[in-house]
Amino acid sequence: YAMLLSLIFLIVLVAAVVGFVFRHEIKTNFESNLKLALRDYNVTADRHSEAVDTIQRTLHCCGVQNYSDWEKTEYFTQRGIPRSCCKSQDDCSEEDLKDPSKAKLKVFVDGCFFLVTLTMESKMSIVAGISFSIACFQLIGIILACCLSQYITNNQYEMV
User: Thinking of the domain 1-158, which architecture would CATH place it in?
Assistant: First the structure.
C-alpha cells in the first residue's frame, strides 16, 4: 500500500513539475487552439463553438486578442460577430454585429486569451494549496503504512 501511494505521489509530483516547466508552451498552445476555434466557429453549435461562446459570455470578452479577430473569420462575413460577445443581448442586432465600427460600442472589446490566462494564474495559488494538502495526506498515509508494516512484522515473531 505504501508503494502504491508513493507511486501516485511521484506521478503527481512529476505532473506538477512538467506543468510548471512547460507553462509557456501551454499558453501558446491554448492561444493557437483558440484561434482555430474562432476560425472554425459555426452556427451549428459544435462543442468548440459552444466553448468559445461560454468563454466569451463568462469572462465578458470577445475574440483572441480583441473583438476585431472575428473580422478575419468566415463566420463574420456571413453573420458578423457572434451574439456571445454582446454586452447586452437586447441591444445587439445582426446589422450592428456586421459593422465593426458599430459593433465596437455593443460588444466586449477585450480579448479572451489575456483574460483566460489571467484567471488561470489567479486561481493557481488555490490549486497549489489544494495539491499541497493532498500531497501531505499522501505522505502521512505512506508513513503510517510503513509503520503498520513494521509493527506487523515485529509482532509476528513475538506470537510464536
Answer: Orthogonal Bundle (1.10)
